[in-house]
Amino acid sequence: MKTVLIINSQAASSQIGGSAGSFILQRMGISVIHLPTLLLGRHPGWGDPGQVNISADDLATLFMAVREQGLLGQIDGVLTGYFRSVRQITAACAIIDQIREQNSELLVAVDPVMGDEPKGRYISEAVAQAIGRELVPRADHITPNRWEMELLSDRTLFDDASVISAAAGLAPEWVFLSDSPSETSWAHMAVHQKEQWKIECPKLSAAPKGTGDVLAALLLGQRLLGLSPRNAFEAAINSVQDILSEALRLQAKELPLVQAQERVITPRSSLTARPPEIQARQSKWVAGISGCKNGWLAVLLDVTGQNAPILQPLLSFWDVLNVSEQPEKIAVDIPIGFPDFASKGGRACDRAVRKLLGSRKSSVLSSPCRAALIKTKYEEANHVNVTSASNAPKLSREMFGLFTKIREIDTRITPKLQERVFETHPELAFAVIRNQKPCNHPKTTKDGIEERITELRSVGFRNEFLGQDLPSNVKAVREDVLNACACAWVAQRALLGAAQPHPQKAEKDRRGLQMVILA
pTM of the full predicted structure? Predict the structure, then answer.
């Protein structure tokens, strides 16, 4: 008999999370050990769920009892689901590592529960980052929905080819994707480096919650029982389709797992997995721009993965609107939007980002009042800034040095255009890549450059691109390339809807421009 360790939420009266997964696996003849990450009386969609939190220490204590019982060597598979804290994920990773020491053939399935459409993310950014950085690389297969897949891969899924490209950038051997791009059906894909399969199902009316938990359990169970990944994919999808059909027949508000349990073993549906049809698709570009001595440096990214990144020098910032790639989102590391009165620490967005950057906070300069921008001499600009309000601060010379580039953007930017062109900060981008941890070294030092190159490699930039010869006409330095790459990564996040605003509620200046920094 096979045994699976489930690390997931547990609900007393709803067929969701580990409760649903446990029933499915046990009905398949697989023994289950369940370590709950959260206790619920019912699904939150019904009202107050009666939530009882489980700490990481509680999770570790439960596991130690299982270990002391001598059961680690009997565990054949691990299935993870919902986590409410980074420490829980750390504990889960340690649990997986300990079991793998006992069983090198352990099959680990990660259901990266992070969010869905249209609600978006329903866990914290830190937990989502930890799932992608720590848990997903330990998995033999993952079972994301479309929204989660886009977040994990930092790519937009347009079609079958974009799914395959996105899966290729993730660590697990297999990706089983639910809700893949399809206008006419409910589509699923199974993606491996050497083979890909797709199943299209008839679209049903709104299904009860817990379908993803059931699918994840079925896939792991079928693989443990000896089916190939393709056959496990077919069997799992057919069983889910039968359960949903039974829910529709009964007009059930919860998944009718008991009523449809025979379909877990012998599904009636006969949907067949077929190779996806790969069709040519249109590229979708974004741009990240950093100012350099004699102009600007743009990094253009094709989020569909069809084309390699492009390093493009620009003599004028607005030349980016004329490049053939026509980027849909453009992130720049120059302030956009200015208050009438200068204040200590700059705009609210400057202060919000500075709080997140620890030892790198000095990289966020305090923005001036709008009236100071027209001045071409430092003494005059500083006087306007200082006299704009009581207790208004002096203008830093470093900020004044950016005035020419600020004016270049400010003369043309509009609230409408700001939907496409927006402000970011490279050091904030690196902190997000590093799971909310600022870089350790200043960006101008050798260690700082190497540190940032390492982080950019982790999100898909190749060494040869990061180390290529620098354009001479704009007098760029290596730091400009790294900043532009970080900005491009944020532009990609913005296109995917993953970029976060700082502050959450943006202020507007007298021209209606949002004073916000995205990352």
Answer: 0.62
